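We emphasize that the prediction below concerns an isolated chain of 110 residues; any contacts that depend on oligomerization or on bound cofactors are therefore not represented. The input was used exactly as deposited, without trimming of termini.
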Amino acid sequence: MQTFRYSLLLVAVLALAATAHARHPTGTLAGVVLDAQGKPQPGASVTVQTSDGAHPHATRTDAAGHFQFVRFSRGQYDLRAFAQGKSSDWMQRILVRSGKATEITVRLKN
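Result of the prediction step, given as a token string:
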């Protein structure tokens, strides 16, 4: 009987978690930063914000030039990268979809 109660409790918790996820769906925004010659840029600063300019977030690229922002609300975002005194253009209206990973390549300008 007690096992049955625990099973019901587990089902209820999972149902609540699924409902919360459905109300606040999230996705991942990831990519790589390359220099003007196409080489990966380790340690580059990557800034992302909602397309209306709010809610900025920042991270740095890893040794292979990769970055990742996880659990972002679905919507459109603008992104820019900086490294060694150079920057990329703003990449605008990048679409993050619920349950999906959006992959982009960012190129720094000379």
